Automatic annotation (TrEMBL):
This is Nitrate reductase subunit beta. SUPFAM superfamilies: 4Fe-4S ferredoxins. NCBIfam families: narH. The keyword 4Fe-4S applies. It comes from Streptomyces lasiicapitis. It comes from the Bacteria. Residues 493-515 are annotated as: Disordered. Keywords: 4Fe-4S, Electron transport, Iron, Iron-sulfur, Metal-binding, Repeat, Transport.
């Protein structure tokens, strides 16, 4: 057993209202610059729909992720080392700008500078890439609220896969595409920061890497040579090419914020409070074997088997042995992500069949069941009605299974049944009715399990949704080593860190750049001060801290 820690995310799709606040704030923070106009590290897709880039889930075309060779070993779907070298200067398996969309702005001067006259001025769209007039035909969420209509639904690769699979009675699964009959839901997407990332394995220059301390996948901009093999290798198409710098860029999981204990920008600004962040401990020695599971439908259970129980004394001892800081182990024990994934088992991975072991999981939507039942005059929160209606979703279970469990309907149905049981049981509790323990028992849970899951999904506070250990505390011992007088050459007698004049801690580069009483300053306090400043309710509260 080799224990590693991973910062992971869970999104509750029942709460997403498709406001795109997460996308806009991420855009303003990370990709609001030249060369990245078409890039959305975070985007919100309408399902059913084609997604962004268009039909990115069609891996027969885009060749992303992993597959098994004839010996049952993992290999990149895009080809091995010799194929990569042969196509390194010309990689034909890449989405074009039309698959993403050509970004545009408007000629606003036509409005502001137009002379008085009988005609109404028009601000025509202009390409942000070429600067020339253009016709708007596609965007990052063209299917928003079924904007693409039945044609867009039919172009969804997951709809095609669901229709191709035959049920036990040999009847083809159908997704209703009539506008008035289709139920849509929103699917926010970021980089999955996978345990077995195909983008990292695809990179010829070694610029893509996965941080061992928290599992975040990043791009070393100095080493990137712009081969774009990572774009092909990523099956979620969440690695982008900056056509100005010639470098690859991707979601960083807002690691500068995580390092001071703050959630990602998309999580912080989410209107629906649907995102959860926390630590998951996993056995690194089991990742390859789990990703190599022959049956695609077994990949979900295989990945669950990789995760470790942070409350298990043996796991805790192994984690300490492997250098996991104590506060990270405690954060894993309180992790909302681990609870939703492994304890309550209501969160599911996105496309486990890509064999990348994704670490952004989703609670599937239950809302259409309730609304459909209420519309027929039945009690939409009654457990008996809910359990019976789960198999009659307008978006069939088969479609949800194609998204989250490689076509296996069982885990999707089980997750929705637990959510239905929670709704029914907690309604009785909140209305003062006698508690019915038979409802939790139907889904293998206790009344206390149901109440704990309800608190996490419905009324959890900020500190319960985001359990993020800071990098400074986790690395405190190493940082404190710098407090040894001879620990840094700059602090040698007569060195720049030993200036005799100035206030305590003053150095050649300003306050806190020197030493105090002959010892260099440790910056752990600065991390916490930064967090307090950003989380204080008002200025006076911040000053009191």
């Amino acid at each position: 057993m080799r224990v590693l820690a991973q910062i992971a995310m869970v999104m509750n799709l029942d709460k997403c209202i498709g406001c795109h606040t997460c996308s806009v704030t991420c855009k303003q923070t990370w990709t609001n610059r030249s060369g990245m106009e078409y890039v959305w590290f975070n985007n919100v897709e309408t399902r059913p729909g084609q997604g962004y880039p268009r039909r990115y889930e069609d891996q027969e075309k885009w060749r992303g992720g992993w597959e098994l060779n004839r010996r049952g070993a993992l290999k990149l779907k895009s080809g091995g080392r010799f194929h990569a070298l042969a196509t390194i200067f010309s990689n034909p398996v890449l989405p074009e700008i039309k698959d993403y969309y050509e970004p545009w702005t408007y000629e606003y001067k036509n409005l502001t500078d137009a002379p008085l006259g009988d005609d109404y001025p028009v601000a025509e769209p202009r390409s942000l890439i070429t600067g020339k007039p253009m016709k708007i035909e596609w965007s990052s969420n063209w299917d928003d609220n079924l904007g693409g209509g039945a044609e867009g639904v039919a172009a969804d690769p997951m709809v095609a896969k669901a229709q191709a699979r035959e049920t036990a009675d040999r009847a083809a699964v159908q997704v209703k595409a009539a506008f008035e009959q289709t139920f849509m839901f929103y699917l926010p997407r970021i980089c999955e920061h996978c345990l077995n990332p195909a983008c990292v394995a695809s990179c010829p220059s070694g610029a893509m890497y996965k941080r061992t301390e928290d599992g975040i996948v990043l791009v070393d901009q100095d080493r990137c040579r712009g081969w774009r093999k990572c774009v092909t290798g990523c099956p979620y198409k969440k690695v982008y090419f900056n056509h100005r710098t010639g470098k690859a860029e991707k979601c960083t999981l807002c690691y500068p914020r995580l390092e001071v204990g703050l959630p990602t920008v998309c999580s912080e600004t989410c209107v629906g409070r649907l995102r959860y962040l926390g630590v998951v401990l996993y056995d690194a020695d089991k990742v390859t074997a789990a990703a190599s599971t022959p049956d695609e439908k077994a990949l979900y259970e295989a990945q669950l088997g990789v995760f470790l129980d942070p409350a298990d004394p043996e796991v805790r001892r192994a984690a300490e042995r492997d250098g996991i800081p104590h506060d990270w182990i405690e954060a894993a024990r309180r992790s909302p992500v681990y609870a939703l994934i492994s304890t309550y088992r209501v969160a599911l991975p996105l496309h486990p069949e890509y064999r990348t072991m994704p670490m952004v999981w989703y609670v599937p939507p239950l809302s259409p069941v309730v609304e459909a039942l209420t519309g027929t005059g039945h009690d939409g929160e009654d457990a008996g009605n809910l359990f019976g209606a789960i198999d009659t979703l307008r978006i069939p279970l088969e479609y949800l299974a194609e998204l989250f469990t490689a076509g296996d309907v069982g885990p999707v149905r089980a997750a929705l049944e637990r959510l239905a049981a929670m709704r029914s049981y907690m309604r009785g509790v909140n209305l003062g009715d006698p508690a019915d323990p038979s409802v939790p028992a139907r889904v293998g849970m206790t009344p206390q399990d149901i109440e704990d899951m309800y608190r996490l999904l419905a009324v959890a506070k900020y500190e319960e949704r985001y359990v993020i250990p800071t990098a400074a505390v986790g690395d405190a011992r190493r940082l404190e080593e710098s407090a040894v007088p001879d620990g840094c050459g700059l602090d040698a007698p007569g060195g720049p860190g030993m200036l005799p004049s100035g206030p305590p801690g003053a150095g050649p580069f300003g306050d806190d750049s020197g030493t105090y009483q002959g010892l260099p300053l440790v910056t752990i306090e600065n991390f916490h001060a930064s967090r307090r400043r950003q989380t204080a309710d008002d200025v006076s509260a911040e000053e009191e801290l």
